[in-house]
Request: fold
Amino acid sequence: MKKTEMVLAGLFNPALAFSNVLRRFPIGSFEFRMALDGVRRPNYAYAMFYAAKQAKNLGIPRISVIEFGVAAGNGLLAMENIAEEVENITGTGIDLFGFDMGTGLPSPSDYRDLPYIFKRGFFKMDSSHLRVQLKKTTRLLLGDVADTILEFQKMDNAPLGFAAFDLDFYSSTIHALKVLSAGYERLIPRVYCYFDDTQGCREELYNEYTGELLAIHEFNQRHANRKIALIHGLINHRIIKSSWCHSMYALHAFEHPLYNRYVPDRQEDAPLD
Reply:
């Protein structure tokens, strides 16, 4: 939602207006603000918090978090702020990674990359400016994701807890999804996934035969014991009924040794402190 649209929507929706105020003036606890979408990138906050909480309850001390498609870097910078607050609450360490071409979108490969809405050069990054703003611990991997994902897989990283997929193209997303095909020791049992380009009612016309939705479908066809599935009903449990809820998925690694371990779903059953 664009800034002007958010202001206009807030005029007719008091809850949304309050969310916008909380983003500018962070009053109250992180969990309070997160529940009201009162943080930058509330979708990231939701996924990172619950991924860290899952890891905590399973005895996993650190997780990795990825943004595929960094562009200007606003999302990755928001991730850094969220990670600091989530680490303080859960005690789970968070390592951040950002993937991007750096030079903007490449040329679409074919119709599956939706060339009618995306073109070469979109979302170019000012990498020098961004690197100055990022913390030294955040890793920025620039280049074709087909190559950088192989570089990432060679690293000794903490298990993946959350990945945001915003590469726009089917062809790029297919390569990025290889991160979910790694050995179970490189994943928490249920990895939160946000797919940005799965909703659009105007020119986008997203569907299961192109783009990210096709990449998800083909991943599920290739993996008998791993499935990427929409988190059904998420929006019903949110105070703010934001559209991002319809783009939040989870990888279920059914063969993971910890998948069937009971994880209490109530704070009082498993206090994070």
About this structure: DSSP finds nine helices and seven strands in the chain. The radius of gyration is 18 Å.
